[in-house]
Amino acid sequence: MGKLIGQGYGGPVHTHRITALSNRRCQGSEEIAPGVFMYTAHDSNLDRIVRDVASGIQVGPEEELLQVRLFQGLACWAPYQLDGEVRAGAWRLVEPRVGELIGDNQGLWDSLVLAGRAEDPPL
Fold first, then answer.
1. Residue 8 · residue 69 · CB < 8 Å
2. Please, what's the largest Cα pairwise distance for the chain?
């Protein structure tokens, strides 16, 4: 049993690409944070992507609900551009947790700031 958590806009570049984040490893996925796996498809055939992710999923504990969040497109930066933006204070850094990357993230930013987890970047 699984749940599609949501679909999001990953960015204006490579809009033909779909990226799936899941709490379970599937064939071709990469663990990007503890318990969070990323699968990237180089086309936008959503039915095929969902089928690929679902068919390649490794079985997890029965009590663990399979969760998947999809993103279309991606955001890109020039070499060192993102590093410069972080150092300028345009971004804050947060250590990821599974529920935040895959689960319901309504109001997530406010809760991270209130909990003191959204740190100012190192200078």
1. yes
2. 45
Tokens 């990821």: give the residue: 96
User: What's the confidence (pLDDT) of residue 81?
Assistant: 93
Residue type, 52: D
Pick the CATH number of 2-114 from 1.20.140.10, 3.40.50.740, 3.40.50.720, 3.40.1740.10: 3.40.1740.10
Q: Which residues contact 37 (CB under 8 A, 6 or more apart)?
A: 21, 22, 23, 24, 25, 26, 29, 30, 31
Within 8 A by CB and 6+ apart from 5, the residues are 67, 68, 69, 102, 103, 104
CA distances from residue 35 to 44, 60, 86 in whole angstroms, order as listed: 25, 11, 26
Average pLDDT per 10 consecutive residues for the chain, totaling 123 residues: 57 78 83 87 70 63 70 86 89 77 73 72 57
Contact criterion met (CB below 8 Å) for 77 and 55 = no
